[in-house]
């Protein structure tokens, strides 16, 4: 029905990329600028406020839970790569297995995040309590939204509605997984920066 | 790559179209409506400035608060809903795939989504005029905190939500243009054979892609400051007011180059075509535009010399600002030098393109005193600043847009707009534009503040220049009158029959692919019957030993 766009599936020789791969890299570049602005804001507010550390101490951030979350997210990235490799090896059932684990991990991440948030709320810490909480909730919240976005996309590929492309255009489907994987690794990477800079420093 | 002949549904073809040409037209028409709307807001303000209670009138036509709201919305609408969607959304969408020989944008569906996000953002902005008992955003187009955080009514919240949509739209649009240029160039179209317009679009898209996200962050922060009382920008809560300005100008300075670069691209195409000789210094223009793109990310704080951010910062940004003027001057000089020895055709698009050069020159050169921290202390926030950036954008970019519309109109419709009406439009607009903006320099030099709802009648030291208010306002109303010639010309040409003399699909005898290898108007979705191959650069005019004075890129 649609017209055919060149290099939609196969790579262009001089760039070595298919279209959506370049597209996702550009999108991620823009995401880096977004999170870059958030991290800069964090640095400026923190260095400009002499009472910042008092609030961090009082916040009782749950480092063990956040460490667990880091491990869960890294595991999900590993299984994501495995799911892509399975597609390259034309093994659909393995793909479903690994992608299922990725989805499970991302949901576990959100559940743990939910417990973290509610414990903050129970202790009376809200975004408007102090700028530390404003930064904490905005940064982890925006990261959480990225996780939710990833879950929606990954679930689409895992469920029959997205999976049916495997039967008609296996190569294009594999590309889609690769592109979604690049995004997922980025979301993982953001957390790897967020975790030490908010919880440990 | 044959275009599909089957019938597409009405909605798919005209509303949620995924054809880049139709999306380009959608962008163009919508942004023209916004430009006209922003112009009307400005005329109300100009009336208020020239005729108010201080000048002896019994009653002001608008309240000072309303004046602030119109000012804020005029800026927002012109920049984010008018000019950028016009130069990137309309011209970029329509021409980039045609000039690189692609059947469509790389991601047609994202392209459609980009337009509709822009549309929703625009509707939210317009809706803010109709909030009962409240004004639209009235804290300046920059929405500085704490003024914006504390401003009354939901107008500012509408503004922030609208911006979030517009930013998302430009993200999709710019990604699409970059991928199209990188991936979909036809065989033989190497980087140095690209028309300069494509280079300008490429650099512009990178600016949009990388500069907008920090404003997204700033909008989120300001929204949460307003709605849930966080303290990002609230000094009492340990927040930072300057932080907002940094985040804002990190976008808004590259945004200035988003406004001007595609205009330079359009002007380069029109000029090269109408001087019938190659552009002088094409390569240095290309490298300069890349240099300009990089530098535009490290000059933003020259908007903030008076904020007390410190002399070290001021010195740094003053130096980078002086450096960024070099590539702009290289591009402009190349265009001027190109004229030398050409046999110039003075048609309407060329007149607009030619007048762009000195107008942008005035705009650029008057910017130098503003870029010097010392001189800026006197000139900051006066009418001088308004005169400066309007010379860049109004008789600059807007004239380039007109040049582009007159030039590519035959491509889109197959019919050429009336030359006579076009020339009346040009000469009238040219005189009126200067009548509006030239006096602003005089007023600004006396120190007249840019934000006075009564035109500055309280300013004792501005007494000598206040009579200019009326001249500027009358010029503005006359400028509107001359736009009527354009509007009439535009619709009359669309609806008239095609003349027999217009059978030629390449009326300007141009060399680039969009003229030589597609019909005018182009085929349906898919653009090309046969994928063209490119053998030479974009500006091979008057090549010796050839019968015709132009050598199409696709001719062997």
What does this structure look like?
The complex is a heterodimer of chains A (201) and B (556). Chain A has helices at residues 19-47, 52-59, 63-88, 92-122, 131-158, 160-163, 165-168, 170-200. Chain A is mainly alpha-helical. Chain A has a single domain (19-200), classed as Cytochrome c oxidase, subunit III, four-helix bundle (Four Helix Bundle (Hemerythrin (Met), subunit A), Up-down Bundle). The longest helix of chain A is centred in the middle third of the chain and has 31 residues, at 92-122. Chain A starts with 18 loop residues before the first helix and ends with a helix. Chain B contains 17 helices and no strands. Mean pLDDT of chain B is 94; it is low at 1-5. Chains A and B meet through helix 1 and helix 5 of A and helix 6, helix 7 and helix 8 of B.
User: Structural class from helices and strands of chain A?
Assistant: mainly alpha
CATH second-level architecture of chain B: Up-down Bundle
Q: What is CATH's topology name of chain A?
A: Four Helix Bundle (Hemerythrin (Met), subunit A)
Overall tally of structural domains of chain B: 1
Q: Tell me the name of the CATH class of chain A.
A: Mainly Alpha
Total number of beta strands of chain A: 0
Q: Tell me the quaternary state.
A: heterodimer
What is the gyration radius of chain A calculated from CA atoms?
A: 20 Å
Give the tally of structural domains of chain A. Answer: 1
Tell me about the largest β-sheet of chain A. Answer: none
Report the total helices of chain A: 8
Largest interface in this structure:
A-B, 39 and 45 residues
The helix-strand sequence of chain A is HHHHHHHH
Instruction: Tell the overall outline of chain A.
Output: elongated
> Poorly predicted ranges of chain B (pLDDT <50, ≥5 residues)?
1-5
The main pleated sheet of chain B reads as: none
Count of individual beta strands of chain B:
0
